[in-house]
Write a structure and sequence with these properties.
Length: 253
């Protein structure tokens, strides 16, 4: 399934609430440099789309900015509210903007679950002229020989799940919907890198929160987890990962 079709798989898109606690525990945060770039223009009103448990949003709160979150799943939203983040429960495409306008819209790890056309239109409605939307995703890259060993484990236990650890493909043919929209200009891609050290349990816990892992079912996921732990233990017991955050900025014309 291509990136612009992933939102059609609603079972995957709406699966994260079932692992909300693990999502909060194991998913990584975001680089300081990304926050610096987002907050450098001093936005007064910020909207975080698909805020989840607040993995990104809480970093804004810590820096003195209290955004409004929009989140589809009440279980994810409950955890975010525990971080003093106001959250409105709704799909972004049908969320009621009312008469509000924002200086900055952020979306961490979630835009691929949003209908591209309707999402762009909603972002254009919610942003003031000159405002910015930033969408970003984390990718964990692991060096050899561990990454090949993990590929082997997945080929045996879960060939229909993504093993994580390899850099994403550079040329997928994907056309960014903001670049194709007359409402937005100045499309810019920025990359941020942070090194992380994870235990076998942390790596397995993180991987299990992804939607393609959840659809394996409890038994297959447990078998996969045991095999991945054993592989990591055989390679020193920890995972040294280069966490690359790919951010795409666009300005409201």
């Amino acid at each position: 399934m291509s990136a612009d079709e992933m939102h059609l798989d609603r079972a995957r898109a709406e699966s994260f609430g079932s692992v909300a606690t693990d999502y909060e525990r194991y998913r990584p945060g975001y680089p300081d440099a990304l926050y610096d770039d987002l907050l450098e223009p001093r936005p007064q009103r910020v909207l975080d789309v698909g805020c989840g448990t607040g993995k990104f949003t809480v970093g804004l709160v810590e820096r003195g900015v209290t955004p409004l979150g929009v989140e589809l799943d009440p279980r994810m939203a409950e955890i975010a509210r525990g971080h003093d983040i106001p959250v409105e429960i709704s799909a972004f495409e049908t969320w009621d903007v009312a008469d509000r306008r924002f200086d900055l819209i952020t979306c961490a790890q979630a835009w691929h679950w949003i209908d591209p056309g309707r999402g762009v239109a909603k972002a254009a409605e919610a942003l003031r002229p000159g405002g910015t939307i930033a969408r970003f995703w984390n990718h964990n890259e692991v060096d050899e020989p561990l990454v090949s060993a993990l590929d082997t484990v997945y080929a045996e236990h879960a060939p229909d799940a993504h093993p994580h650890g390899r850099a994403p493909a550079e040329d997928t043919g994907y056309v960014d919907p903001f670049g194709a929209s007359d409402a937005f200009t100045d499309l810019e891609v920025r990359t941020y890198r942070v090194e992380r050290m994870l235990s076998a349990d942390e790596w397995v816990g993180m991987a299990s929160t992804f939607s393609d892992h959840q659809r394996l079912g409890p038994e297959r996921l447990a078998r996969l987890g045991r095999a991945v732990r054993a592989t990591i233990d055989a390679h020193g017991g920890t995972v040294r990962a280069q966490c690359r955050t790919l951010a795409v900025f666009a300005r409201r014309g």
